[in-house]
Design goal:
alpha+beta; Beta-Lactamase; five-stranded antiparallel sheet; 13 helices
């Protein structure tokens, strides 16, 4: 149902144009919006009119009108005057309200439909029949999941809706308490860079306007309605894999997950077997800060000793000493490509295992 605020604004705009006072009641006689102070109890008169066969009637010095939607009584409108002009204004107001309710219901049905499509809750035949009735045309689409850090409130949903309010080709919905889903029509965005820009725009706007920290994951482009559910699952995986391996990024694309996608799907038993092959029985725990920063910078600079030493503000020989110490500790010389690659993968496997174990512990606590 339309909010009372929206109904009030509509009546006030009509009064400003026509100078005719209006009031809107529910079919049970409850006042929803009005441009004037109510004089006396109108509940009995409204109920009498609601039970009658008339669509409009003069009662108590007012024109009464029924607002019917698909032959069902939605509202009762009062125009506070007895003139022909008031009757005409009342009829026009009824048309406006009827169109508003119909548009709201259609939008609600469209969002509900897309929610079921995203979750894969519809048969393909039913999906296309319903899409035709709701005037949802074929298009290339991408699903974005906006994951909120902490508790999600209504302002997040409203902010995202406002960003895409000018188009009926996009859908904003939600399926859980932690995230908002955007199903974006991307026919006008042929370059993948545009998708990344959109994800960053969502992060920046929600931080600035809703004052919340979010991460955005998105799936691959799909052309068919039934494949939207797949893009949604890809966006979910992008966020989950991103939480493990790319925690510093607030936007992540399924197509850019790389080796993280493969490691994420490995069972724990295979991970443990791989780590034993790399490190033996002694799998390294967390390194000290100096070692961690050294390894990170060395990898960032593509195993370039001189550039890494410069960025760490240490002598080249000092860095070489540190790398030799790491080699003794791990049994791997990360100055060589093969050992560096093996170690990098091993670190990702350890992160994956720790994440899966934390999920199990969380479930046990619940």
């Amino acid at each position: 149902m339309l909010s009372n605020h929206k109904l009030q604004v509509t009546l006030e705009e009509i009064k400003e144009i026509s100078r005719i006072d209006l009031a809107l009641y529910s079919d049970k006689g409850k006042l929803l919006a009005s441009t004037y102070e109510e004089e006396g109890d109108m509940e009995e008169a409204i109920r009498f009119f609601a039970d009658s066969m008339a669509e409009s009637q003069m009662l108590s010095g007012c024109h009464f009108f029924k607002v019917l939607i698909e032959n069902e009584l939605e509202y009762i409108l009062l125009a506070k005057a007895t003139s022909e002009e008031a009757y005409m204004i009342g009829r026009l107001a009824v048309c406006q309200l009827r169109n508003m309710v119909s548009a709201y219901r259609e939008q609600f049905d469209r969002n509900s439909f897309m929610q079921n499509v995203v979750l894969g809750n519809m048969l393909v035949v039913d999906m296309y029949n319903k899409a035709k009735k709701l005037h949802i045309e074929p298009a290339q689409r991408v699903v974005f999941i906006i994951e909120v850090s902490g508790k999600k409130d209504g302002i997040v949903m409203e902010t995202v809706k406002n960003l895409f309010v000018s188009t009926t080709r996009d859908f904003v919905t939600e399926v859980d308490e932690k995230s908002v889903i955007l199903v974006k029509d991307v026919r006008d965005m042929p370059e993948d860079e545009k998708l990344v820009e959109l994800a960053k725009m969502l992060v920046d706007n929600l931080h600035a306007e809703a004052m919340v920290k979010v991460r955005v994951g998105f799936g691959n482009r799909v052309d068919l309605l039934q494949d939207i559910a797949r893009s949604y699952q890809e966006a979910k995986m992008a966020l989950e894999v991103g939480n493990i391996f790319y925690a510093e990024s607030d936007t992540i694309s399924y197509s850019k997950l790389g080796i993280g996608r493969l490691i994420y799907q490995l069972p724990i038993s295979l991970c443990e077997m791989f780590l034993k092959e790399v490190f033996g029985e002694k799998i390294p725990d967390i390194f000290d800060e100096e070692t961690t920063v050294t390894i990170q910078k060395f990898f960032e600079n593509n195993l370039n000793i001189s550039e890494t030493a410069r960025q760490l503000y240490v002598h080249r020989n000092t860095l070489v000493y540190r790398l030799e110490r790491i080699e003794k500790m791990l049994g791997l010389d990360i100055r060589t490509f093969e050992d560096a690659m093996l170690f990098k993968i091993a670190l990702m496997v350890i992160s994956h295992m720790n994440y899966q174990k934390s999920l199990i512990e969380t479930k046990e606590e619940e």
